[in-house]
């Protein structure tokens, strides 16, 4: 049997196009692949049909653009020909004008026609510019739409590079934005052109950005992002050991790194373009502070890893410390790659004002805050509500402790994450509430003011529970604060130890409020618990003073000391609150009150404390003056002593006994009362004594002889000696008595009829605090011996 003849050799074909050769090599790798030739042929036919449709569509668009250009050109040419005819007619009228009258009329016509001609020329130039700009923009927008169609996969050709197409589309978009910015600046009246181009570009961007994100996510998935978190150990968080979570950004091969960089830059360029477009479109509109847009590329890193982390978070609903530990470990382990790998790419894309480190931290913080708001805090609220019922599984105290422990974890987490930024010298790009909230998990309270009120109420209850036992302990009122000094004074406030306890409690409360990322909420959080605490402390001091007053009317030394202790506490507490209000932390909150009123948030409390202090200082003064009045009654009623001449020392024994009592009371107050309020007391006592003695002796119609003047001078010298312990010139605090004595010592020859009412004579003799009527009365009651 004859062997079968070999098949005829295949005809030689010309060299294939390299793209076609690659296509065939990819489809026919072995002889078995020849069975799919029909499918390959169908695919090629389909693509050819698509390409033919594309060519047909492009031909139609080119024809439309050419027609539009031709019509614009014809209109421009017609208008310019009209301008030329007008200019030629103008020239002819000028050259053929005859006579002076005709020349005058011609010149008049020239001046009338020139503005219209100039306007027409300018209009034609603008029409030409408009047509040229419209054609440029139409061509660029068409290029963008073609690139977008190619990127979406509908018209993918053999060997298509999607990243290269992305970059070309973004390049066209940048050119369009440059032209639109130029039009906005130079021709803002072309609103229809701007609107039409923006509409077409928005449609392209609505396709381009999602597709770019899809491609970027696919590339991230091929890199192994997000990495596995199952092997994370929290014991290494605070140690110097190497992180156990593998970072795919550091382990990328050169090929993958190049692809990732291109995809990264595409998203960054798209965001930078979007930022420019938004700035142009909102130019001239006062819309206040626009919310800061996060960095898209970092969002694509944060979202998948935060989703993976939440699967672990859900296992630790009863152990929130593990939630914060894992979140911090993720932030810390990847933060270096943000600086070393991604930040140069962001800088290359010219995205101004963005830090990859800050965006990474803020993205993870926002994800954690969202989880806390959805999962953790609602359970805490339920726990607080259930704790008040009889069959609750925990007590209200345990529920409050659980809440405060969660807040402590949040404050600690914020401090550590913010240290990751400040530790490298990086500060927030803008230090305001909005940017601060992006890097603080306490921002959950910014969206839920009711939770902030719950926190403030818990802090108030815990603080008052601790302070009540301290305020009821008498030793805390007897023991003084050692070295309680004000920075700008050297006065010892002699404040009881209880004041330190209240001050420290409020200071801790204020420190708890400092991390809250909102000035308004910080002020509200401090005000809610602090005001009741201060009111409770003030009420306790008031009750102590009222008890002392009710027992002995402040006549006993022990009750006087008790009131002095409360006054000292009020003085020190008032000074502390005032000093706090002068701090920058509180100055920032002055205009943040809900009712819009300025002033320190403690202003009302300071006024209440001051009113309490002033009221009881006045009461102490009144008690001393009443006792002095009662003891000096016999001395003041003895009118005859002022007409008698004393053989012995010109001093009244009864008056000395009154002064001895008053000096003893003031000395006791000096030992127990703070110096500033003691000064107020002795000056008020001096003023009261001055008025009392003047009214009863000098202005009371008492006749005074020369011997009485000597007696009065002796008594007043002792009075002045008592107060010389607290001032240099005590007579200055008894102006009426001093000037009255000066009048009594004036010689009879110096007094003439009516001279005592002469103002110049009164000033000459140093009389400034007495009226003319009082002066005349004192002189009339002066008895001069013959």
TrEMBL record:
GO terms for cellular component: Dsl1/NZR complex. InterPro entries: RINT1_Tip20. Coiled coil: none annotated. It comes from the Eukaryota. One of its GO terms (biological process) is regulation of ER to Golgi vesicle-mediated transport. This is RINT1-like protein MAG2. It comes from Digitaria exilis.
